[in-house]
């Protein structure tokens, strides 16, 4: 299988006053198309920094990030934003839904951002919502949904444009056990049915257990696969 995402000697340092604090210290990894990968490690090990770099939300200090053949480290901010818009879907621990929009409205907004012209596909939206068992919640606003339902809407929004990669940052972190299991089952189904490539940060061993591979980090390094 071809690699859809890879990094080589990736470093990231933050300036705090006159100090340079390293968050990543030379991370090299490869993710193949259709893989479901968990990234685990203690707090402060660099997991979230790595995910934000993979998604083009941050620029690396040194090293390369290849997404579907394009190096995020060598393009302009505008080009990086475009790659992110076209190829990456995000799911965060906080659902980040627009509270004034319905479930369908949140998906329409994601489509508008993706296409740039407001175009969308109603049938595609219905299929995604049906897959995530949200077809009866299409006209509900976030405050009318449970936490698990809100996270599924966030997942629907991430996949509605069929991105090459889904990046998920602790997607079950705010959910109870039952809803965590439902959301993880949805990720597994997306991975298996659509060959969707997923990279997920998690502290939860049960969440990592549904993945096909686990990458462990410590002190800004990959220490085990």
Structure characterization notes:
With 225 residues, the protein is an alpha/beta fold. Helices cover 34% and strands 29% of the residues. The chain has helices at 47-54, 77-87, 103-115, 122-131, 147-159, 177-194, 205-208; strands spanning 3-16, 19-32, 36-40, 62-67, 70-71, 88-91, 165-169, 197-201, 213-218, 221-224. The longest helix has 18 residues, at 177-194. It is globular and about 50 Å long. It starts with a strand and ends with a strand.
Mean pLDDT: 90
Q: Report the order of strands and helices.
A: EEEHEEHEHHHEHEHEE
The strands making up the biggest β-sheet line up spatially as 6-7-8-3-9-10
Briefly note the structural class of the backbone: alpha/beta
**Rounded Rg:** 17 Å
Which residue ranges are poorly predicted, with pLDDT under 50 across at least 5 consecutive positions?
A: none
Compute the number of strand runs. Answer: 10
User: Helical region count?
Assistant: 7
Portion of residues in beta strands equals 25-35%
Shape field:
globular
The N- and C-terminal alpha carbons lie at a distance of 18 Å
> What level of helicity do the residues show?
25-40%
Largest sheet: 6 strands, mixed
Observed structural traits:
6-stranded mixed β-sheet; 29% strand; 4-stranded antiparallel β-sheet; 10 strands; 225 residues; 7 helices; alpha/beta
Write the layout of secondary structure elements.
Blueprint: E1 3-16, E2 19-32, E3 36-40, H1 47-54, E4 62-67, E5 70-71, H2 77-87, E6 88-91, H3 103-115, H4 122-131, H5 147-159, E7 165-169, H6 177-194, E8 197-201, H7 205-208, E9 213-218, E10 221-224
Parallel strand pairs: 3-8, 3-9, 6-7, 7-8
Antiparallel strand pairs: 1-2, 1-4, 4-5, 9-10
Helix pairs in contact: 3-5, 5-6
């Amino acid at each position: 299988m071809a690699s859809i995402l890879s990094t080589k000697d990736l470093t990231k340092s933050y300036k705090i006053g006159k100090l340079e604090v390293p968050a990543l210290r030379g991370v090299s990894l490869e993710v193949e198309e259709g893989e479901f990968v968990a990234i685990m490690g203690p707090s402060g090990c660099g997991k979230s920094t790595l995910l934000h770099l993979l998604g083009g939300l941050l620029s690396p200090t040194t090293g390369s990030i290849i997404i579907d053949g394009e190096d995020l480290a060598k393009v302009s901010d505008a080009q990086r934003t475009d790659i992110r818009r076209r190829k990456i879907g995000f799911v965060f621990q906080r659902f980040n839904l627009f509270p004034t929009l319905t479930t369908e409205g949140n998906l329409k907004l994601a489509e508008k951002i993706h296409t740039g012209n407001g175009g969308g596909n109603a049938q595609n939206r219905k299929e995604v919502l049906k897959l995530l068992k949200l077809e009866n919640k299409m006209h509900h606003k976030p405050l009318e949904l449970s936490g698990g339902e809100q996270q599924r809407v966030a997942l629907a929004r991430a996949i509605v444009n069929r991105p090459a990669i889904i990046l998920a940052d602790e997607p079950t972190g705010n959910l109870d056990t039952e809803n965590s299991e439902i959301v993880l089952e949805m990720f597994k189904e997306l991975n298996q049915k659509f060959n969707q490539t997923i990279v997920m940060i998690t502290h939860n061993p049960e969440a990592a257990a549904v993945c096909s591979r686990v990458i462990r980090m410590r002190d800004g390094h990959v220490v085990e696969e």
